[in-house]
C-alpha cells in the first residue's frame, strides 16, 4: 500500500490505524483507549503503560539481539571510534540510571544534558527514560545565559555534561559554560556529573561536581529494571525558538512518541532492524532526539553518532567515508550540509573514492530543499533524495517524499491532515499560497504541551485558526497533493538548519547602550539558507561612524545567545520603516536589503524613511566567512 492510501486510512479510521501501529511497541499495559478524548489534553493510548528505554534496548536483548550493534560513534574531532552492542548499551544505561537514582533522581524529575556528540549523551538520555525521569538536552552552541534560562525553566536535579567539545579550530569549554550558567540560574542542583575528556579536563567543584567515569565505576554491574510509566508521562523537554524571549519547552510523551517514531522509521524512512542508519544532525535538536537516538533503537537498527562537521573535519569526504565504513543504508542530513559539501566537491570526487553500494536513500529536512542541491546530490550519489518537513513540536515528519517512487516532495504522513488557509481561515484552493495548518486532532508523537505553561500550547498554536494547529509555515499544495513549504510566517528564521527567533536576537541587541531601535531579519544565503542581519538605529549622541558598535553587538549576541546565532552583519541605518501603528516593516527591510524592487507599503508611517533606507542599503555588505563584526557604510543620523 502506498503512502497516499496509508494516509487516507489513517484519517478515515484513526483508531484502527494507530491501534495496529501501537503493536510495534511493547507495553506493560496495552492501551485499551487508542484515540484521544476530544476534550481536555489529548492523550494517545491514554491508559497504556510502557517504558521507552525498555523498547529501545531491553526488548532487543531479550529477543536475542544483544550482540547486534546499537550505536557506532565516530569523532572526526578526536579520531575516536566506539561501538556498543545492544547488550553493552543496555549495561551502560543501567549503570548510568543507577547513578542518577543514587543522586536522588526519580520518576518525573528533570535532568539537563549539556554535552557534545559523545556516547555518554545518548546513555544519559536513555538512562533518564529508564527511570521515568525527564531529560532536557541543551544544544552545545548556546551560550551560558541561554543554558541558564533553560535550567530555570526545567528545574533539573542533575546536569550531565562533559569537560569539553570541539568546533573547528577551537575547544568549547562545556564545564565552564555550565559553571557560568549555574551562577546565573536560580536552581538547586544536586550534582553536575562531568565526562572528562583528555583534551581539556575540567576542574571539579567539591561537593557538587562528580566525575562521570568514577561514578559509572562505582555503580558498575548495577541492575536496574525499567520503570513503568503512563503513556502520557513526559519523556523529554526540548526547548525551541518561540516568538518571545521566554524559553519554550516542547514536552514529548512516552507512548505516542514511541509508536509514531517506530512507525515512521519503518514506513517513511524504510529502515528495519539490523539496518545501519545515520542521522547527521545534533542531539541538541529534534532530529537528533528522534532519529539519532529513539527511532533507530526502537526498531532495533544500528545508529551512527557523529562528532564533526560535513566539511573541514578533515574534508568534504567525511560523510561518504563514514557511510562506506559502516555500510549505512539511510543517511539523513540538512540541505545546508549538502551545500557545504557541494561547494568543496562539486564534481563528487570524494563520493567516487568510496564504495557506497549499501546506501539506498538520502533524507533531508530542517529547511527548504532547493532544486539545485537535490539534483546535485541525486546525481553524485545515484540514490533518491527524499525531503521531509516537520518541526520540534511535531517530533516526526508532517510530510515526506517517497524513496520508492523517488518523489522528493512531501505528501502528508499518517494522521496529519494538512490544509492551507488564508488570513480569514478559509481553505485556499490548490496551488494558492497561505498558512499551512493541521486539522485537529494531531497524530501521536506531536506535543500538546509547553513545559511550565499550561495555556501556552493552545494560545500559541490553536487560537489563530480555531480547530487547527497553526504550523507557522507558509506554503501551498500542488495539484498532485505535494505540500510545498515556503518559509515561516512569524519571526523565526532558519540558519544552517538551525531555528532561531529574530525577536530574541533583537531583544539582546536592544540592551546595548548605543542602540535606540533595531530589527533583525533573515537574508538569503547561498550556504546557510538564511543568515541574520541586524539593522540598528543608534541613540542620539552615539558615534555613527564608530565601527566598534557593530563589533560589540556581534560579540554581545555570541556571549549572550551563542555562536550558533551566526549574526555577523550589522547595518547602521537612519531609521526603520514602520506602519502607522508602530510595527517595524521587517519584510520591507529584508526586500530592500536583498535588492528587490519594493513598492511603498500603504500602511507605512513615513515613506521618506523607506527612500533613505533604499539609498543606504544600495550596497549589500560583503560576506565575512568566520570573522565577527562587519557593517556597511555607517549611516548619517
Ligand atoms: N557547539 C558550539 N558551537 C557551535 C556548535 C556546537 N554544537 N554548533 C555550531 N557552533 C558554532 C560554530 O562553530 C560557528 O562558530 P563560529 O562563528 O565561531 O565559526 C557558529 O556556531 C555557527 O555555526 P554554523 O551556522 O553551523 O556554521 P559553520 O560555518 O560552523 O558550519 C555547516 C556550516 C553548514 C557546515 C553547518 O552549519 C552544518 O553542518 N549544518 C547542518 C546543521 C544540521 O544538521 N542541523 C540539524 C537539522 S536536520
Ligand atoms: P525545527 O523546529 O528546529 O525542526 O524547525 C522547524 C522549521 O524548520 C519548520 O517550521 C520549517 O520552517 C523548517 N523546515 C523543517 N524542515 C523543512 C523542510 N523539509 N522544508 C522546508 N522547511 C523546513
Automatic annotation (TrEMBL):
Domain AMP-binding enzyme C-terminal: start-end pairs: 506-583
Residue runs in coiled coils: none
InterPro entries xref list: ACAS_N, AMP-bd_C, AMP-bd_C_sf, AMP-binding_CS, AMP-dep_synth/lig_dom, ANL_N_sf
Domain Acetyl-coenzyme A synthetase N-terminal intervals: 5-56
Pfam families: ACAS_N, AMP-binding, AMP-binding_C
Domain of life: Bacteria
Domain (AMP-dependent synthetase/ligase) ranges: 61-441
GO molecular function: propionate-CoA ligase activity
Family label: Belongs to the ATP-dependent AMP-binding enzyme family.
Protein name: AMP-binding protein
